What does this fold into?
Amino acid sequence: MTVTITAFERSPDRGKGLARDMPVRWALEEVGQPYRVRLVSFEALKQPAHLALQPFGQIPTFEEGDLALFESGAIVFHIAQHHGGLLPDDADARARAIAWMFAAQATIEPPIVDREAARFLESDKSWYEERRSGVERRISRRLGDLSARLGDADWLDGAFSAGDLMMITVLRRLESSDLLNPYPNLLAYVARGKARPAFQRAFDAQLAVFTAAASG
It folds into this structure.
């Protein structure tokens, strides 16, 4: 059965590969699973047909036969569970890889998204700079912990896994800032992820959608 995912018809990330369908595309490319993409407009996100798949009116969704999933982390986890290459065979290593998936979205990502929300929604407030500084201190503490744990290893726990895929996806949200600069090992870690052929195929596919929309 062919997998179908949803993605923005006109992504607000302007082709940077930051939209939430990116880790799903990347995971599917890593495991060699063909997939179709159904592009949706912002208006369509709030229509009953899409809300039946994603109750919060977001992307991506994942459909395979009778199975419909939402939330990028849950979708990547499902892909990793059912295809080889993203989770180790050893039970303990597998559990650690899953823990890193959760860490990416539950520990590292929240202050990063908080910073983005503050920049877009609160930058005109008198207290914005104080808020921004506080959020960036939180991010830096998390990055310091992550950097210390990674050390000089290529990946978080042995071979590349879904944990690395999700962590690198989150860290890429900081590439337009200088917050990663104090951590050369994290910069190199992100670069290694982006150099993977599966990442490049996923990025190019997402970029093609933006390019087509921009020229249409």
